[in-house]
Amino acid sequence: MKQICTPASFSSPAALAAPRLPLAGLLALATAGFITILMEALPAGLLAQISSDMAISEALAGQMVTIYALGSLLAAIPLAAATRSWRRRPLLQTALCGFVIVNTITAFSDNYVLTLAARFIAGVCAGLLWALLAGFASRMVADALRGRAIAVTMVGIPLALSLGIPFGTLLGSWIGWRYTFGSVSILTLMLIAWVQWRLPDFAGQAATRQIPVIRVLGIPGVAAVLGVTFGFVLAHNMLYTYIAPFLNLAAMPGRIDLILFIFGAMAFVGIWITGAGIDRWLRRLVLLSTALFMLAALALAIGGTVPAVIYIATAVWGLAFGGAATLFQTAIANAAGDAADVGQSMIVTVWNLAIAGGGAVGGAVLDIGGARMLPWALLILLLPAWLIAWRASGHGFPVTRSR
Question: pTM value?
Answer without folding.
Answer: 0.80
